[in-house]
Amino acid sequence: MFKPEIYQARRTKIKNDLKNNGVLIFLGNNYSPMNYPANPYHFRQDSNFLYFFGLDKDGYNAIIDTDTGEEILFADELTIDSIIWMGPQPTVKEQAEKVGIKTTAPSAKFSEYIKNASDKGQKIHYLPPYRHENMMFLNSLLNIPFDKLKENASVDFIKAIVKLRNIKEDIEIAELGKACNVGYLMHTTAMKMANPGVIEREIAGTIEGISLSHGSIPSFPIILTKNGQTLHNHYHGNTLNEGNLLLVDAGAQTTMYYASDNTRTMPVGGKFTQKQKDIYQIVLDAINKSIEIMKPGITYMSVHLYACEILAEGLKSVGLMKGNVIEAVPKGAHALFMPHGLGHMMGLDVHDMEDLGQNYVGYSDEIDPSDTFGTAFLRMGRKLEKGHVLTNEPGIYFIPELINLWKKERKFEEYINYDKVYEYLDFGGIRLEDAILITENGAKIMGDKRIPITIEEVENTMNS
Ligand code: GLY
Ligand code: MN
């Protein structure tokens, strides 16, 4: 946990931003049972609650009253039954002191407080809920129908949080760096294990353990597959064979839940074929060249389109695309091979603040999301600023179902050499991903060392 002053300063900032604007509700998370309450999934506190109130505890809620300046933490003391089963804990008052909160109240008082505030004519602000328990609670508290809860969430509250959380503080950058260093261990371990005869889950389980042993559960379910053409493939039951490409997209969380997110793609057995090298080098050029242009003031939409141009030119050089490929990118022809965005914000969540609405996080009044297939999946398009942390993750995928569909529709025939594409139907996919910090004048890859990425570095690591 950070020092109490950090949380106090964050609360003061949001209070100043939303001065005399009513009451802000911060709902913490509860344990989610696997089949009975005492057998829960790993607890993960809500990230907004963590950001302003720091406490990694279930059953905690809080408010900030922007009219009076009051901050209250609502939680119950442990019962003797909980102490017997789960052990003793500091009192709610002691927990509150750790994050600089003076006023506490029992959970039962929370609804009463909100009802009183509402009766007094104070505006009540809440964030878009993503857990059903919190939806049920808000529904009964505010009498808003379930299907209207998201659209009635407070846009002012969302925007005030995004303004703070989008710019990472130095202490957050240090935590994110730690998460990336654990990511380094996870990915280099995967490279050393990727041999013929190994089952994907043997590697996935090992690297999940690395995240757990250094901090917490991974920042998202590990993607580790020889079928990398499926973008978020969570199936880990295949046996690796010589000639397969293994795509590993995995990240850690620190003890304070700051995330990392990297992707590497490697040849099973440790030696790329020439055909694999040719495609790999195109993706490598796209990530390296697009990182070079990242700096404050440039939109990430333009970095995305630039990376796609590099991919398209590379695809043309191996005969998979043709014609004026620079013209093809804004039309979306390259999206047959790269149907996703170049990256997303990263912080306390791997897709930082996606619960608040990606458009508020990754876009701004100056730039709207695209509706062109491929670029429409870009979660982050806004102007880069010092202190942003985001991913850069280009890829080239051969998705048989999409290839067959586009071929049937004769889509972008002027740009796509379908005969050649059919030679790659069983190729799989390649993605490379680094986390990037935007600095005063440019960008920096996060973590003490970059995870091996050149063809030579990957082969050397695999064979070491
Ligand atoms: N690493 C998973 C994702 O970015 O969606
Ligand atoms: Mn990512």
Question: What can you see in these coordinates?
Answer:
This protein folds into 2 domains: 4-165, Creatine Amidinohydrolase, Chain A, domain 1; 170-462, Alpha-Beta Complex (Creatine Amidinohydrolase), CATH 3.90.230.10. It is 38% helix and 11% strand. It has helices at residues 4-17, 47-53, 80-86, 92-98, 108-119, 132-142, 155-165, 170-193, 200-214, 274-292, 300-317, 325-331, 358-362, 400-408, 418-421, 455-462; strands spanning 23-27, 61-65, 71-74, 103-105, 124-125, 223-225, 245-250, 262-267, 389-392, 395-397, 429-431, 434-438, 443-445. The longest helix has 24 residues, at 170-193. The chain is globular, with a radius of gyration of 24 Å. The protein starts with a helix and ends with a helix. The model has no long low-confidence stretch (mean pLDDT 97). The structure holds glycine and manganese (II) ion (MN). Glycine (GLY) binds at residues 220, 249, 261, 344.
Q: What is the overall number of helices?
A: 16
Give the fraction of residues assigned to helices: 25-40%
> What structural category do the secondary elements indicate?
alpha+beta
The general outline is globular
The assigned CATH architecture of the largest domain is Alpha-Beta Complex
Total domain modules: 2
The CATH homologous superfamily of the largest domain is termed Creatinase/methionine aminopeptidase superfamily
Rg on CA atoms, Å: 24 Å
Ligand types: glycine, manganese (II) ion
Low-pLDDT stretches are none
| Average residue pLDDT | 97
Q: Indicate the proportion of strand residues.
A: 5-15%
